[in-house]
Amino acid sequence: FSMFFGGSRRGGGGGPRKGPSLNHPLKVSLEDLYNGKTVKLAVNRKIIVGDVETCDACRGQGAVMEIRQLGPGMIQQVQRPCDECSGQGNIFKTKNERKVLEVHIEKGMKHNEKITFRGMADEHPNREAGDINFVVQEKDHDLFKRKGADLLVVREVSLNQALCGFSWNFTHLDGRKIVVKTRPGEVIKPEMNTKEAVPFVKTVSNEGMPSRGNPFVKGNLYILFRVKFPEDNELTPDQINTLRQILPDPDSEMEHDADEVEEHHMDNADLRNFGKGGAEHRGSDAYDSDEEGGAQQVQCAQS
Ligand SMILES: [Zn+2]
Questions:
Q1: What percentage of the chain reaches a pLDDT higher than 90?
Q2: Which residues form the Chaperone DnaJ C-terminal domain (predicted)?
């Protein structure tokens, strides 16, 4: 049905409208989005050759009326697309043209942004050719994650580096060699000093992505830290003794009578099991599921 509308509007002089636009995905590395790049891409398009003539069979309508005899005295009038012009209303010849386009990837362009070439899609009679759009598809990067103009990197540091200082050398997206290091006395923590468990994050100003159209204004580089603690028994008793003397707030175990105080050691645990302890009592299901929900909420806040 829409074909009739299209046909009559095209041929019926409803004014030229634009042909369909084409979207081509264009995979771009984060490096190229940082530095900008021009790539040459070939596209194939149909162009009209010679004159466009109005179809005689349908008088440019793109559709013809057909009268069908259904029975004695019964006539049905139906509209169908014109065979002569394939419903176009015009008769014309096309040929394929290969066109090389210079695609300018601007510094700071983002995922799904379009680079438009006006009127470069297939040509159609009586209407403007549509556009060719190259749609930027940002490729994943090994090191950086991007959000807006900001970059994020995850760094694992040892407990030694976390306490005594660390430096990290890397090559930025534009090839600059960069070292990020802690100031003297600066401590990297396993998580932020907040009520909820929030990853420990620091930022380096202006080392994110350039802004599109304003490339000298850059985003920031976020560094999310993970502190790798020593494993059980990795430290020798001597090392532990030294650390106990050096680090603040050592443990002060009080003298106690083994007959009066019960001593325990700890096993590894999973917070998802919190609330599942004890023996099950029949008929107390409601309380059980309630406890489970509570345990999961604690888990969410921790992760
Ligand atoms: Zn026709």
A1: 65
A2: 23-230
The number of CA neighbours under 13 Å toward the Cβ of 97 is 14
Would the pLDDT of 56 be above 80? yes
Q: Using an 8 Å Cβ cutoff, are 100 and 41 in contact?
A: yes
Chain segment 225-243, per-residue pLDDT in tens: 999 999 999 999 999 999 9
Distance (angstroms) between ligand 1 centre and the Cα of 178 equals 68
Q: How far is the CA of 59 from the centre of ligand 1 (A)?
A: 6
Ion ligand 1: residues, Cβ under 5 Å: 55, 57-58, 82, 84-85
Q: Contact, 96 vs 44, CB < 8 A?
A: yes
Ligand 1 center to 55 CA (angstroms): 4
Domains and CATH numbers, the chain: 2-138 (2.60.260.20), 145-228 (2.60.260.20)
Strand positions, DSSP E, the chain: 22-28, 37-54, 63-71, 74-81, 90-105, 114-117, 132-138, 145-147, 150-158, 167-171, 177-181, 200-204, 210-211, 214-218, 221-228
Token pair for 61: 């309508």
Distant-in-sequence, close-in-space partners of 178: CB < 8 Å, separation ≥ 6? 169, 170, 171, 172, 207
